[in-house]
Amino acid sequence: MGDLSMYMDGTLTLYRETPLNWTAAEANCVRNGGHLASIHSMMENAIVASLCGNDECWIGFNDIEQEGTWVWADGSSANFSSFPGGIAPWNPGEPNGRPNEQTDGAYIYPPTNIYVVAGAWDDDDIAVTRPYVCKHDPMPTPPPSPSPPPRPTKVGEFQFFSEKKNFNQAEAYCETLGGFLASIHSMVENALVQSLCHPVECWIGYNDIAHETQWVFNDGSTADFSSFPGGKAPWNPGEPNGKATEHTDGAYMYTNNPWTVAGSWDDDEVLKNRAFVCKVAASLPPPPPPISPPRPMVVGEFTFVAEPRNYSAAEAFCQSGLLSPAHLATIRSSAENVLVHELCEPHECWIGFSDIAVEGDWSWVDGSPVNFSAFEGGAAPWNPGEPSGNADEPTDGAYMYPHTNPWVRAGTWDDDDVAKLRTFVCRNVSVAEEVAPGDEDAGDSSAVGTIFLILFLLGGVAGLVYYVRRQKELGQPLVPERVREVIDSITSRRASPLGGVRPVQLDPSPAMAYTPPLSVSGLMPPPGNAA
């Protein structure tokens, strides 16, 4: 039958491989339930022209019955009101056939004829053979194909779960069912797991988390691949290729990746989320999935705020009084960076590091010193190549990357336009951190003075204890006799009325006896009583 090209809901068919003259072409169209194509709009004309491509094609317009009276072969009305000028799209000067010529059939010009208007018509000898276009009644719409049966989620001991989890979460969920992430011990089991997972990637229970390159099954079964081709695990060529410094410690299966072998394995970061397959021995129906605990919003001094705000609005919120006193988070160590990252996941979060005041001079919004000695390498954890903002860009605020961005390192920082909206983390300011700038020296001096006072008091107490013990060992009273006399004298004077005390007469004469003042040595025991 030649080359059939269906177009416009199957009503137009191009016959290109077996060109026919006009009469034979019309006869063949009739045999196939139609006629040479009638054209009733510019759109339909364009469709026929594009269908013919670089070929001239017979169409159903002719004046075979009466010279000069052009009609459609299918008997439809020759109405060109929707064409420019309300006339048929003949090429200029056409049709030009004469009564004594057999130029009684119309054909359509292709775009390859540079001397005519593409898509315009011309008349020609109906004995000439050309490709042709038939027009048929619209084909009946076929009944919808039956819906495919639902894909299985369980085959034997293997059960597929489409809810994506990271490697450890998937393993924990399998254990709630009484199983483990799937161990695979034959090509048959591998094919079963592949059919369950298709077309998505799935975690399986193979890992080298404990020891890099020492791959084991999660369920503790023997990693024996003697029944696999070559006696080896079915890794995709070149895998596993994770390094000791990477978290590529979990295996997953390829199912529909055109660049890999379907059913082969690869290693990847265990923190990524994927569908997974559990292997559970036949038992009672599994319990319903556990309800995930609510995501923490506050950990220690850090508070996660899920409502996205620009950088300035986020800092203002932290200081607003709801969390006061607080600022956008200052991060002082790798451990704190991990904590903030876990609060933010899976969102990007503003943190309190910026160079808004001076381009390139990054500082903490709460005024804390910029010190990264407690970070890996003693440097801020910028993503490689960051910060990259220029002086003429408002990329003055730092934010943290989550695991959900596969092109960066999770937990690293980047700079961005402070006008953009993001979630953010505030850090409450502790009492110790509220010392005003410049008061640090005063605080240090006060602490030193306090230490000396404590040492002095301790020394005094120790001396008193020594004195009491010494007096007891010597059999002497705790208060020497002469001291007691002085105390008694003072006490008696205070007890007497003022009028009863005889005033002391000061005699300036040299004969007046002189009594030396009581010395410290006078308080000591007499030499004869020494030990």
List the helices and strands and how they pair.
Blueprint: E1 4-7, E2 12-20, H1 22-31, E3 34-36, H2 42-52, E4 57-62, E5 71-72, E6 105-108, E7 121-124, E8 130-136, E9 154-155, E10 158-165, H3 167-176, E11 180-181, H4 187-197, E12 202-207, E13 216-217, E14 250-253, E15 265-268, E16 274-279, E17 298-299, E18 302-309, H5 311-318, E19 326-328, H6 334-344, E20 349-354, E21 363-364, E22 397-400, E23 413-416, E24 422-428, H7 440-474, H8 481-495
Parallel strand pairs: 12-16, 20-24
Antiparallel strand pairs: 1-2, 2-8, 3-8, 4-5, 4-6, 6-7, 9-10, 10-16, 11-16, 12-13, 12-14, 14-15, 17-18, 18-24, 19-24, 20-21, 20-22, 22-23
Record keyword descriptors for this entry.
531 residues; eight-stranded mixed beta sheet; disordered C terminus; Mannose-Binding Protein A, Chain A; 8 helices
Describe the structure.
The chain has 531 residues and is α+β, with helices and mostly antiparallel strands. The chain is built from eight helices and 24 strands. The protein folds into three domains: 133 residues, Mannose-Binding Protein A, Chain A; 126 residues, Mannose-Binding Protein A, subunit A (Mannose-Binding Protein A, Chain A); 136 residues, Mannose-Binding Protein A, subunit A (Mannose-Binding Protein A, Chain A), CATH 3.10.100. The strands form four sheets. Strands 9, 10, 11, 12, 13, 14, 15 and 16 form an eight-stranded mixed sheet that branches. Strand 9 and strand 10 form a beta hairpin.
